[in-house]
Design brief:
Layout lengths: L19 H9 L5 E2 L1 H15 L3 H16 L10 H10 L9 E5 L3 E5 L5 H19 L1 E10 L5 H9 L3 E9 L5 E2 L13 E6 L9 E7 L6 H10 L8 E3 L18 E4 L3 H15 L20 E9 L10 H13 L15 H10 L3 E2 L2 H14 L10
Parallel strand pairs: 3-4, 6-10
Antiparallel strand pairs: 1-12, 2-3, 4-11, 5-7, 5-11, 7-8, 9-10
Helix pairs in contact: 2-3, 2-4, 2-11, 3-5, 4-11
Bound molecules: nicotinamide-adenine-dinucleotide.
Length: 390
């Protein structure tokens, strides 16, 4: 297989020769087709199969990526496939790999993800955490050196579906940094996400979380800048700075080589501090690599390390009151008087629930992303890649 980098992985590539303004004009005249979730799922499965993934791996990758699109997070949806193919072709992502336990003291387990598909390492790490939390009331599981584990809310949802609460701290490393620390005009870390999920039921009956905060610690996730770049759109204000430290709404500098722009951390010093602490507890504390330059970097490498704290609410002595108390609290907050310009108050996780309802019949995918998906599938070896998703 020849290395043919097709996507603009965050760490890597290039503004191409298509100028930002031309992209903007083109995408404004191109309607986004809606694609049935099942068709996207099959496409991802078949692309993974062409890379050599087992059937289970194909399904886990497709479930998470299409699930992210359904939840409204295209940044972590099927548009990640080109990065995965590029990673697999370069040998940075290892197909059919499983996490290995490297430390186990019962309440604290550390796994090495061995650069396997994060959809597999994350799933297996969470299954282990859920089993241990059911036995002991709570557990801490560290997952080091996994390839990209995608939308972190997927793991919060897996815990919630088993009746467990979870707090997840993640760092990102491998490619070049993209987020500037508060006060800096040079990127030093990535978008280090944090997720906190509360279950909607204490039984293991597959319920969605009652509430789930799942966020990048940058003002916008890097993938959202990629989606805006692919669609020829501007990004929100105060999310990115250029090399002189001036705020810009043009995402293309993030894809220059070398990068000429950096994302801003959310909430000034607080988001910057949270990102730094997520790196320290999500990676350094569990033996995972941080962004400091002593570690190898590669444009096709996207490593996530994750510290998960999983708690069984039925072991806290609040099993009888927890859900009623949590629901009463959320209702009380929703009921706040509104500021001008707002017509409701949403709880964390509400936008994703709404998106799932809206997108169940079809997911909008822009033409640039469709082209990249077909090209990456062809690189993976999928025979009919060109005729798919039309
Ligand atoms: P976001 O800003 O869209 O949402 C962040 C959180 O805010 C969500 O919990 C959402 O429910 C809530 N929210 C959104 N709008 C709201 C509103 N109007 N009122 C109340 N709550 C609201 O998400 P993001 O920060 O762009 O992150 C997107 C995804 O990227 C996440 O799923 C995250 O896990 C993922 N991510 C992954 C990595 C990785 O390396 N694997 C890195 C960064 C981000």
């Amino acid at each position: 297989m020849t290395v043919n980098i097709l996507w603009r992985p965050i760490g890597q590539v290039a503004r191409e020769d298509v100028r930002w303004q031309e992209r903007t004009r083109r995408s404004r005249t191109t309607a986004m087709p809606d694609i049935a979730p099942d068709d996207l799922h099959a496409f991802v499965r078949d692309t993974c199969a062409s890379l050599g993934s087992s059937e289970v791996e194909q399904g886990l990758v497709a479930d998470q990526l299409v699930g992210a699109n359904l939840a409204g997070h295209d940044s972590h949806g099927v548009g990640m496939m080109p990065a995965y193919v590029a990673g697999a072709v370069a040998g940075d992502l290892r197909v059919n790999e499983h996490p290995e336990i490297v430390q186990d003291s019962g309440a604290l387990v550390v796994l090495d993800g061995r650069q396997g598909f994060g959809q597999v390492t994350g799933y297996e790490a969470m299954n282990l955490a859920i089993d241990r939390a059911r036995e002991g009331g709570a557990v801490i599981v560290g997952l080091r050196k996994s390839f990209h584990i995608g939308r972190i809310g997927h793991w919060g949802e897996q815990c919630a579906a088993a009746g467990m609460a979870s707090l997840l701290f993640v760092n990102v490393m491998g490619h070049s940094p993209i987020v500037a620390p508060y006060g800096g005009r040079q990127a030093k870390f990535v978008t280090n996400p944090v997720c906190i999920a509360i279950p909607g039921s204490l039984d293991a009956n597959g319920d969605r979380p009652l509430a789930m905060l799942d966020m990048a610690t940058s003002t916008i996730a890097a993938g959202k800048a990629r989606v805006a770049f692919e669609e020829g759109r501007e990004i929100p204000d105060n999310a990115m700075i250029d090399s002189a430290g001036r705020v810009t709404r043009d995402p293309s500098g993030l894809f220059d080589r070398p990068r000429s722009s950096a994302l801003l951390a959310m909430g000034d010093h607080k988001g910057s501090g949270l990102a730094i602490m997520a790196e320290l507890v999500g990676a350094a504390l569990i033996g995972g690599p941080t962004m400091q330059p002593g570690h190898d970097r590669s444009p096709t490498l996207v490593i996530n390390n994750m510290l998960s704290i999983v708690i069984d609410p039925s072991a806290t002595g609040a099993a009888d009151s927890f859900l009623d108390e949590a629901t009463a609290y959320l209702d009380y907050v929703r009921d706040a008087d509104l500021r001008d310009g707002f017509d409701e108050i949403l709880m964390p996780g509400d936008p994703e629930k709404r998106s799932r309802e809206k997108r169940a019949a079809g997911i909008p995918v822009d033409d640039n992303t469709l082209d990249l998906l077909r090209t990456c599938a062809a690189t993976a070896g999928l025979d009919d890649a060109e005729s798919r998703l039309r």
